[in-house]
Task: structure prediction
Amino acid sequence: MRMPPFSLHTPRTLDEALAISGALTDSDQKFDWVAGGTDLLPNYKWHLNAKSHVISLARVSELSKLSDTHIGAMVRLQDLVESETVHPLISHVSSKIASVMLRRSGTVGGNICLDTRCFWFNQSEEWRESIDWCHKCDCGSGANCRVIANQNERCVATYQADLAPALMCLGASVHLTSPRGTRSMALSEFFQEDGITKNVLEPGELVTHLKLPIDASEWKGDYQKLRQREAWDFPEAGVVVAWKGEGGSPIDLRVATTGLGVVPVLHQEASAVLDHWEGEASVEALAESIRKAVKPVLNTWFSPTYRRKMVKVLTKRASRGLLVR
Ligand SMILES: Cc1cc2nc3c(=O)[nH]c(=O)nc-3n(C[C@H](O)[C@H](O)[C@H](O)COP(=O)(O)OP(=O)(O)OC[C@H]3O[C@@H](n4cnc5c(N)ncnc54)[C@H](O)[C@@H]3O)c2cc1C
Ligand code: SF4
Result:
């Protein structure tokens, strides 16, 4: 598999990066940002919607700041694993992403903005051509989606990155910048129910950092992940349960999932079980309500039925700390 040709831009500052992105956008030339390249470059080798320009953020040191409440987009995942200042839940989730080698290159921004995945799409060009493409393949064929048949308007490729649910449970906001200015929003509002556009980023816009609220340190939690190979695989299902207060009597509760749909989801229904907290019975009710809320489709390794069943198991496992007094 040969890398398609592209022009690589390597700005040294954020202003320089925005000037390049502005010039390319104004002249209607498509481009991708690249951070660690652990997802984008394999996708380019498979000729998955490669662009003729790529802007690397590797030299933009302004994006690498890390503190307990500020996580720069270019912070490496392994730095989160080894950091003593970031929230323990973030370190734990990071340690479950890919392998150490990939985490030394892979970044927070790349993880949050990871492309959605589907076994009809993440294949070689020859393979995709042999099935006459699918709607997400940018080849102008007008092909249908292979998962939701007889339509070429909707893509339900799966979001399979690990970090987002933990950051959502801790109340993170995501900060964006473009030549037109800056904006921010709750991370749960960043993603879009469309496997092609994926999120609210506009042409030329990038993620600069994530911010955690001061009270994030008062939350505890756990992440449980289902994957094909423990060594390095993407989540087939991932559940974060986070709570405030002592385990035996939580005063607030949040649950978020990944790997089960087009977007990661912060489940608003989770806190309802707090009204009548009864320990194990409440955890059982919580796990069943999350199982019912997720609706995976058949486009990753394991079957939707198995993934849905495992969501209940994972939710219970991630809730163990809630039962410790
Ligand atoms: C074998 C293998 C196993 C993997 N396992 C996992 C796993 O278990 N869990 C998991 O979550 N991921 C996994 N990954 C995917 C990937 O390694 C990680 O998600 C990593 O965090 C991606 O970061 P990156 O910096 O390399 O992203 P890149 O490849 O550089 O970029 C990924 C995407 O994000 C965009 N992007 C990057 N930075 C920004 C920014 N600041 N603003 C806007 N857009 C941006 C790029 O344009 C691109 O579309 C795996 C990859 C491989 C090859
Ligand atoms: S969900 Fe449909 S359109 Fe999207 S990548 Fe899969 S087959 Fe293609």
